[in-house]
Each structure stands twice: as C-alpha cells, then as structure tokens.
Amino acid sequence: MATIDRPTGRALAIAALVLAALAGPALAAAEDAGAGASPADPAATSFRTRVNGAIDRGVVALLRQQELDGSWRSNTEAYGGGMTALAILTLVKCGLESDHPALRRALRFLTTRPDPVKTYSMATTILALCATDPEGEVERIERLTGTLLGWQRDGGFGYPDYDRDLSNTQYAALALRAAAGAGVKIPRKAWEGLAEWTLGQQEEARGAYAPAGFRYLEGKDATGSMTAAGVSVLAIAAEGMGRRGRQALEVGRARGLKWLETHFSATTNPHPRFGGPGRDDEDAHHYYHLYGVERVAALHGLDRIGEHDWYREGAEYLLGRQGDDGDWDRHQPNTCFALLFLSKATAPTSGSGGRLTRAYGTVDASADVSLLASGDTPLTLWVGGFGDDARADLEWPGDEGRGPRVVRVEYVDAGGEVLAAVDGAPGRPSGVERHAVRHAFDRNGVRSLVARVTCVRPGGDPTADGDRRILESAPLEVPILAVDDPTLRRYVDDRDRDRIDPADATWSSSSERQGHETKFAFDGAHGTSWRSAEDDRAPWLRVEFERGVRATALLLGPYVDREDLGRGPPPPIRVAVRVNRRDPTEVRLDPAPDRKTVVPLERGARVRTLEVRALELADEAARRTFGFTEVELVDDR
Q: Is the pTM of this model over 0.85?
C-alpha cells in the first residue's frame, strides 16, 4: 500500500546534508547552511558525511546478506548463531532500532535455537541480547552468563574445550560487562581471575611504565590485536573489581597503553618482532585489531593514542577499503568489525553512536533532472535539482536562476508503474520546491526508480501537450530492507515445521563442493548449504527415509550468493521433483532471492524417497550458484 506525504523541510535538509559532499563543494556549502550546520569547517563536514555514508552502505550490505531463517551465514557450522549475534550487535550500534523487522527475525532465530556451545558464540549472543532487550531477556541473559562463567578456568576462557587464549577471554569479558550492565551479578572472583590470567599473557618489561604488549597465549608474540584485547580486559576487570586490589592491574594497563602508543598502526595489525607491520596471518585479523583499538579508546576515554588520532586514521583506512557493495573484503565478520569501529560502538564516551541516514542519489548538473531519496519504509523521494541544459531551455524570461515551471512530478518504478505523483504550480518558477513524497513498499528488494517531471515551455500553455516537455532522471537504485514481510517472519519458524529427521534419512547427490556437502541441505540451518560442482550439468539431490514422512508440501530454499545480490537477476532454473515412484513434476524455482519454492504434495502423502533434479543447466552462472540451503517437508494439515 502506497502512502503519499509531504516531508518537512527540516527532514529534507538533513538528508541533503548527507548528500552534499557527493554533489560538489558549492552545493555542500549551501546545503550545510540550510541544515543548520556550520560551514566553517567543510573538511570536518565532509569527513562526517563520508563516514555516515560508509556506515549506511555497510548496514545495507549486512541486511541484504541475511538468510531466510533470520541468520547470517559466516561460520555457521562451527559457531552456530555466533555470526548472527555479531550482526545484531553491529546493526543496533549502527543505529537500527531493535524492532526493525530484520532484527526481530534474527533475535527470533537466536532465541529459538539451542544455547551456544562456543565462547565466541555465547559472548556475542549475550552482547546482542543486552543491546536489544536486556529487560525482556533478563532470565535468558542470566542463564547464558551462568554457563559462560562455568567455562572460566583459572581466570581465562578457551573455546571452551581447548586451552585458554586472550581472544576468547576478551569476548567473555565484554559479555560479562554487558551482563553486569543488564543487572546480572558477576562474582568478584570472576573479575579478579580475568585480571590475573590476562596479566600472565603480558610481555616482561623493565620499569613500571615501559611498553609491554600482550600475546594470544603462552609462546606467541605480542601483536596489536592482542595488546588491545589485553588492555580492554584489564579495564573491564578494573570496573568490576572496584578500588581494591588494582595496583598490579593498573601497571599492566599503563604498559599495554604505552605499547599501543609505540607501535600504533591504522593500516596493519602491528607485529614488532617482524619489523612492525603484521605478517599475512596477522593482517587477516586487522579489522578485529581496529575494533580492539576502538574498545581501548572507549574504555579509557581517549581521543588520541600517543600522537595518533586513532579514529580519523582508522576511519580513513576503512573508507578506502570498503567494497562497491558496501561490505569489507566480502567477509561478514570484517564488515561487522569495520562498522563497529566506525560507529564507535563500545561505550557512549567513544562517540555519538551510529546515525543511519540511508540517502541515495547525487545532484548532477549535466542531467536534465536529479532524483534523490532517503529512508526505507517509508521511502522519501524528491527532485534534487535541474540540469544546466534543462534550465536554459525551460526557464521563462525573467525567471533565470529560479528553475522551470513544473506541471507535475511522477515517481515511477522500473515496470512503469507510477508510485506517487505531485502536482506543480505552473504559474510560477519551481524555485527550491522539492516535490517530495513518501512511499511505502510492501516487499523488500532493490528498486529502480525514476523521476518524470512535466514542465511548461517558456510562454506556453500548461494544459497544451505541445507546450509541455517531459524530463526524466536517470534510474536510481534503492534497497528496501525494512518491510515487515509476513512470509519472511514465517520462514524463521520453518525449522520447527520441518518433518525431516536426519537420523531417519539417508541422502546422496550427483556431486558436492567442499564446505557445501549434501548433508547441509537437511541440517535445519540456512547458513549452510549443499551446492553441486560447477562442472555438473545435471545435478540431483536425493533423500530416502526408513519410515517415511507425511507431508503436504516440499519447501526448497535456494542457495543465493548474498554477497553478489544486485549484480543482475539469477538465471531461470527448472527442476524435476520426484516423490516415491511417481512421475516427476516439473517446477520452476522462484527467482526471488527472498523466497522459497513451494511444491504441493498429495495431501497427507507419506514420502519415502524424494529426488530433485535440475533441468538444462547449460548456463555457467546457473551451475555456479545451483544448490539449496534447505530442503524441507512440512505437514500443514
């Protein structure tokens, strides 16, 4: 259902401020002044605008990568919901409200799955719950925190089934701090243990304030990421312990801070033993290192680390590394760490927190008309301005510099449907009128939109077709990601509806890829998947049941390379579905990346064998992406 409304001038001015730096210095100064911002420091305004834009693009990238069951896919097999919890924490810290439909689905995924069994996953789950609903989830937070405390050994934390290490300990400390903030009582001995064990991971140093870094575990070298972790853990332990017994802890913190000052780098994870820059294996943790630096600065209230403006230098590095699709290195954890750094997310003392602007489009003087947009659900659309040639042709004598006379503005989607329209005032020049509307879509997806502006020629009659000229903007692609889609909400609970019991099933396939084995089509998680080999032109997947499964429908969850969304429509794929020994049924898979394909079965049929076979996979792109995140049998009787 579409809604049309006129946004306030203030709302448009704020959105224009975000767009200003993209449209050139002259426009930037004008829009800054219109929004009430001080134009005295355009460099600072440009930096803030660039950072806010990077956060927005990163948030969009994360939202587009969410799976059908509400999860995020990175390391699902090893860490379960850990990546999902990290994504929730990141999105909240970047400014998403906890009632955003994507976050509600993700929280539903977390709270309906078994408790985490890894320290990282347990810690990030506690952090996510504390960031979204600490009061409503207090019992769950308290229970998870109790389990986490049970994994503490001699003060430190491991996976938990391996030896303790500083990375797991760091995450446990962050989670304990968040739980304490939510009202969970943490025993003093837990804080004392954290401090004592962490100090044991620090290098030896001569002099009370000589630099001394921290290592991952005994026998390893000190690095930037681990020193940031060690200093943060000590700061958190100090908070929990209060004033008693903190002398040795404070010395360790001071030595660690001095190490960070001495070896600071915004472009690599420092590894002084190897000449300062990190080695390849250390560089893999650089985003994690930068987030560690942000935590240190936040917990200590630092604007600078030594001579370094840590935030400015780190942000400039991250701005230069962000991909065209808004993520970092096509890697979900790195994207989260980058966004957590940019939003200064650890504590209020480190910054104002993320503020989503979600603005799209630029003002182009060479285009007839520029379309701008901001928001999501609803989306605000407006005319950003007219090009030089259009003004020269359409401005009436005496109206020079005041814009064409507008009869009507229509906002049109890629299919030609008019989403909203605004009548102009053709008796006068348009001036600064934006002809703004709000429109609410009923489904998520990337929308291609055009502004179509009807103007009256100089001296012409606005009612006469021959005296009119229609201007069109270039298509503007806008991702819509905040629609509360009932289908997506239902998908989160499909695992509970699935009648397939892996213990009663035997599966096979024509081929599989490493990390995308056949078993993952039946494991109840959309973060894992079965994919056939790229050279398999006729892939098939088969499952047999010892006792049979009663079902009314087959659900096929498509494998989608979510990092590649937006690079063009997926190739059409047809499959043949065969149940037991019946003749196969030909089915066209739903091309929408956010929809499962539903195959109705004979009502109450008992399925003993099920086969899904691809037809005509001659297209290379189809073979590259063919597979399923989940194959489910449901009984809706």
A: yes
